[in-house]
């Protein structure tokens, strides 16, 4: 699949996730090596009003979504792949008033499970806010045309 097709698939998938729309998440980049989503800083996701630090739940949502969308970017055809397990190790709090980026890649694809890993960062990927590993269950191709053009083919 071309890099353009991967970006389009990622954008299409992200576009149907209402909670991600409310949070303002966007696809920053996507290719065969992985996916980067952007979570913009906003008052809605502040966890500590005194410091302006982003709530850990918003970062968890970013990383679950990034890992999940990375699965649909690595498969030849669209498949529904719900989260089986997600582990996040927080390294340090995010700095207030800065966007957060989430990177994820699929490092192993089996018949039933896809294994992902990644990290959240702000300015420098070498200074991650958090590391993540996730597993996603392969459910197979949708029966009807539920996933847009690719689902019914």
Please describe what this structure looks like.
The protein has a single domain (3-137), classed as Hotdog Thioesterase (Thiol Ester Dehydrase, Chain A). The two termini are 15 Å apart. The chain has a 6-stranded antiparallel β-sheet with strand order 1-2-6-7-8-5. Strands 3-4 form a two-stranded antiparallel ribbon. The protein has 3 helices and 8 strands; from the N terminus they run ααββββαββββ. It is globular and about 50 Å long. It is an alpha+beta fold. It has helices spanning 3-15, 18-23, 56-74; strands at residues 26-31, 34-39, 46-48, 53-54, 83-90, 100-109, 113-121, 130-137. The mean pLDDT is 91. Residues 52-127 form the Thioesterase domain. One of its GO terms (cellular component) is cytosol. Keywords: Hydrolase. Pfam families: 4HBT.
pLDDT < 50 runs, ≥5 residues: none
Distance between the terminal alpha carbons, to the nearest Å?
15 Å
β-sheet strand percentage: 25-35%
CATH class: Alpha Beta
Taken together, the total number of domains comes to: 1
What is the name of the CATH topology?
Thiol Ester Dehydrase, Chain A
Radius of gyration using CA atoms only: 15 Å
Give the name of the CATH architecture: Roll
Can you count the beta strands? 8
Summarize the structure.
With about 150 residues, the protein is an alpha+beta fold.
Topology:
Layout: H1 3-15, H2 18-23, E1 26-31, E2 34-39, E3 46-48, E4 53-54, H3 56-74, E5 83-90, E6 100-109, E7 113-121, E8 130-137
Protein name: Thioesterase domain-containing protein
GO molecular function: 1,4-dihydroxy-2-naphthoyl-CoA thioesterase activity
Domain Thioesterase: 52-127
